[in-house]
From TrEMBL:
<dbReference type="Pfam" id="PF14316">
    <property type="entry name" value="DUF4381"/>
</dbReference>
<dbReference type="InterPro" id="IPR025489">
    <property type="entry name" value="DUF4381"/>
</dbReference>
<keyword id="KW-0472">Membrane</keyword>
<protein>
    <submittedName>
        <fullName>DUF4381 domain-containing protein</fullName>
    </submittedName>
</protein>
<keyword id="KW-1133">Transmembrane helix</keyword>
<feature type="transmembrane region" description="Helical">
    <location>
        <begin position="28"/>
        <end position="50"/>
    </location>
</feature>
<keyword id="KW-0812">Transmembrane</keyword>
Length: 152
């Protein structure tokens, strides 16, 4: 016997699932665009600073390779190349050794600096002079900032 009750043939009404997260409201789109722009600007600012500091980081890495008194000229060249990166027309770059030494001494007045004339041009530089110069350069490179180098 067939069921003739019409209410049994009806199924419950099911409401569609409410999708609350997509598409977002216009305010969320605006916030997303603003956030992306702020992040892009921040990354650009960070990247420019990172690139400006690259010669200083490379000089510090190259300094770790200089260990022997015979590398006094390389140590001096390292400082001049670093100064040339940040101040290409600095007068100390083409100055005689005495003026170059005075310029370096002005950078760290409390740190002793050996006589560069004898250190750079003697065939056998003294180990103590080289160690003193190496200590001076290490201290200066660890203290100096990119901003200070750009202002020289």
């Amino acid at each position: 016997m067939a069921n003739t009750d019409p209410q049994l043939a009806l199924a419950d009404i099911q409401e569609p699932v409410l999708n609350t997260f997509w598409p977002p409201a216009p305010g969320w789109w605006l916030l997303t665009v603003v956030l992306i722009l702020v992040l892009a600007y921040g990354f650009r600012f960070f990247w420019i600073g990172w690139q400006k500091a690259l010669p200083l980081r490379q000089a510090k890495a190259e300094l770790r390779l200089i260990k022997a008194p015979g590398q006094s000229a390389e140590l001096n060249e390292l400082l001049k190349r670093l100064l040339r990166c940040y101040s290409p027309r600095h007068q100390a770059l083409s100055a005689p050794v005495k003026q170059w030494q005075d310029f370096l001494q002005q950078q760290l007045p409390q740190q002793p600096l050996p006589d560069l004339q004898s250190l750079l041009y003697k065939p056998d530089p003294a180990e103590a002079d080289f160690s003193l110069y190496l200590q001076f350069v290490t201290t200066w490179l660890n203290k100096v900032s990119v901003k200070q180098l750009e202002q020289l």
